[in-house]
C-alpha cells in the first residue's frame, strides 16, 4: 500500500501508486498537494487499491475469476477512457449477487467510478450510502472513503447537507488523541470546515479551520476557506490577511480570491496601494518554508560503494567537491514512475556542468539477481532514461541513508553534507528541486 504524508493545499493533484490516466487519474481531490510515496518495506502482495488489506487469492476458480475481474475494474474506474464500461460492469456484477467477500470492493469501486465519470451528486450519494455499511471499522479507511465523497460533493457544490454529514464522519474517524492521525485529521478538518461554511455554519467553520491551519500553513485551500469564513463573519482584517497569504502560496495556482481581496483592500485603504508588496512578502515567506525549511535535512552524507548496471564500481568519494542530487528509486514503485521523468529532465538540464552530479540509486524487490538486473535495464530502456544508475540491491546505501520510502531525493553540498531531503512526489517537485539546486550552486 502507499503511505501518504499529509500536506494539503489547492495545487494540482498527485497521482497514486498505480498508473492511471485521464482527468481523474489522480488521488481524490481531498488529497490535492499531498506527497505520494511507496514504503521502503513494500513487497509483492495482492492489494486492492485504496483498501490496504492483503488478501490471498481464493482457491475456488470462480472466486479467483471474480477477484481478477475486480482488480481490472479497480483500475478501470480511474481511467476516463474505460470508466463508463467499468460502471456498467460493476452494476451488473453487483446485480448478480456476488460473494460477500467481494461486495465491499465492488461497492467502493462503483463510488469511485461514479466520481470519475462525473455522475450527479445524487448518484454518488446513493452509491456511497449503499457502500457505507460495508466500510471496515478502521479509522483511516473510513476517513478516506467518507472524506473523498464529501470533498467531491463540495467541489461540485452539490448536496451540501450530505457533504457535511460525510465530512463529520470522516473527521470523527480519526481521534484527536491518535498521534499518527493528527495531520490527516487536520486535512479532514479543512473539508469539514468548508462543509460547515457551505451550510451557513460560519462559527463552526472558523473553529475547525483555525485548528487545521497550523498543520497546513501554506495550504491555499485552508487559507481561502478561512478568508471566506472571516469575510462572511464581517471580520475584514482577518479576511484580508488570509487572502493575502493564499495568493502568496509558493506554486499556488488558485487566484479566485484576488477580486474579493482587492475589494476588501480598497474598502479599508481607499486604494490598492501597498497590496502587491504585501502579497510579495507573503510569497517570499511561503517559498522559504515550502522549498527549504520543510525539506531541510542537515546530516553528513554516508559513504558508500556500489556498482553500475555494467558492474563498474562507483563510490561516493568519486564525487568529492561536487553538488550531488541522489534519487533512491525502484521500477516497482508507482510514485517513482511519476518522479523519474522529472529527474531525467533535471539531469539533462545540468549534464554539461562539471560541478553537479545526478545519480539514481536503484533497489528492486527481492528475487534472482539476474531478474532484478533485467527489471532495471528493461525499465530504463523502455523510458529512455540516460541519467547514471547504480545498484543497491543489498540496501547498503538505503540503510546508510535511512530510506523509509521511495522515491527519496537527497541534495548533498560540496562539503559532503546532506542539505535537503525530498520524500515522495509532490506538486511542483521539479521547481522545488531546482530552487534547492540553485541554492547549493551559488
From TrEMBL:
The record's listing under InterPro entries reads:
Redoxin, Thioredoxin-like_sf, Thioredoxin_CS, Thioredoxin_domain, Thioredoxin_ResA/DsbE_sf, TPR-like_helical_dom_sf, TPR_rpt
Which cell locations does it reside in?
Answer: Cell envelope
**Biased composition regions of type Basic and acidic residues, renumbered to the chain:** 1-10
Residues in domain Thioredoxin?
295-442
Describe where the TPR repeats fall, as residue ranges on this chain: 186-219
Q: Name one Pfam family in it.
A: Redoxin
Q: Which UniProt keywords apply?
A: Cytochrome c-type biogenesis, TPR repeat
Record's Gene3D superfamilies?
A: Glutaredoxin (3.40.30.10), Tetratricopeptide repeat domain (1.25.40.10)
Gene Ontology cellular-component terms for this entry are: cell envelope
Give the source's domain of life in one word: Bacteria
Which GO terms fall under biological process for this protein?
cytochrome complex assembly; response to stress
* GO function terms (MF aspect): oxidoreductase activity
SUPFAM superfamilies given in the database record:
Thioredoxin-like (SSF52833), TPR-like (SSF48452)
Region Disordered: start and end of each range? Answer: 1-21
Q: What is this protein called?
A: Redoxin domain-containing protein
Amino acid at each position: 500500500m502507499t503511505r501518504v504524508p499529509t500536506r494539503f493545499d489547492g495545487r494540482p493533484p498527485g497521482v497514486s501508486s498505480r498508473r492511471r490516466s485521464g482527468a481523474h487519474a489522480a488521488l481524490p481531490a481531498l488529497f490535492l498537494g499531498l506527497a505520494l510515496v511507496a514504503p521502503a518495506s513494500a513487497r509483492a502482495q495482492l492489494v486492492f487499491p485504496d483498501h490496504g488489506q492483503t488478501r490471498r487469492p481464493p482457491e475456488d476458480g470462480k472466486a479467483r475469476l471474480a477477484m481478477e475481474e475486480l482488480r481490472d475494474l479497480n483500475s478501470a474506474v480511474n481511467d476516463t477512457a474505460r470508466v463508463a464500461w467499468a460502471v456498467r460492469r460493476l452494476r451488473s456484477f453487483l446485480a448478480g449477487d456476488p460473494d460477500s467477500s467481494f461486495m465491499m470492493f465492488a461497492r467502493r469501486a462503483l463510488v469511485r467510478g461514479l466520481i470519475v465519470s462525473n455522475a450527479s451528486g445524487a448518484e454518488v450519494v446513493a452509491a456511497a450510502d449503499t457502500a457505507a455499511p460495508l466500510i471496515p471499522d478502521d479509522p483511516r479507511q473510513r476517513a478516506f472513503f467518507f472524506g473523498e465523497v464529501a470533498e467531491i460533493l463540495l467541489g461540485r457544490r452539490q448536496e451540501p447537507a450530505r457533504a457535511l454529514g460525510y465530512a463529520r464522519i470522516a473527521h470523527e474517524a480519526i481521534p484527536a488523541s491518535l498521534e499518527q492521525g493528527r495531520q490527516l485529521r487536520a486535512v479532514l478538518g479543512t473539508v469539514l470546515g468548508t462543509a460547515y461554511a457551505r451550510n451557513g455554519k460560519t462559527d463552526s467553520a472558523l473553529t475547525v479551520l483555525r485548528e487545521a491551519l497550523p498543520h497546513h500553513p501554506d495550504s491555499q485551500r485552508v487559507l481561502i476557506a478561512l478568508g471566506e469564513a472571516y469575510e462572511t463573519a464581517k471580520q475584514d482584517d482577518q479576511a484580508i490577511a488570509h487572502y493575502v497569504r493564499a495568493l502568496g502560496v509558493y506554486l499556488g495556482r488558485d487566484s479566485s480570491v484576488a477580486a474579493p481581496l482587492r475589494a476588501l483592500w480598497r474598502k479599508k485603504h481607499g486604494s490598492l496601494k501597498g497590496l502587491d508588496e504585501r502579497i510579495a512578502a507573503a510569497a517570499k515567506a511561503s517559498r522559504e518554508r515550502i522549498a527549504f525549511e520543510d525539506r531541510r535535512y542537515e546530516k553528513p552524507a554516508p559513504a558508500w560503494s556500489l556498482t553500475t548496471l555494467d558492474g563498474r564500481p562507483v563510490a561516493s568519494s568519486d564525487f568529492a567537491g561536487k553538488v550531488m542530487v541522489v534519487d533512491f528509486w525502484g521500477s516497482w514503485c508507482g510514485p517513482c514512475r511519476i518522479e523519474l521523468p522529472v529527474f531525467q529532465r533535471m539531469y539533462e538540464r545540468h549534464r554539461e556542468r562539471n560541478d553537479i552530479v545526478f545519480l539514481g540509486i536503484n533497489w528492486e524487490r527481492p528475487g534472482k539477481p539476474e531478474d532484478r538486473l533485467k527489471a532495471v535495464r528493461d525499465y530504463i530502456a523502455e523510458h529512455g532514461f540516460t541519467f547514471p544508475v547504480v545498484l543497491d540491491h543489498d540496501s547498503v546505501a538505503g540503510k546508510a541513508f535511512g530510506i523509509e520510502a521511495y522515491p527519496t531525493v537527497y541534495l548533498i553540498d560540496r562539503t559532503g553534507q546532506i542539505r535537503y531531503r525530498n520524500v515522495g512526489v509532490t506538486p511542483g517537485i521539479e521547481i522545488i528541486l531546482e530552487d534547492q539546486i540553485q541554492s547549493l550552486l551559488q
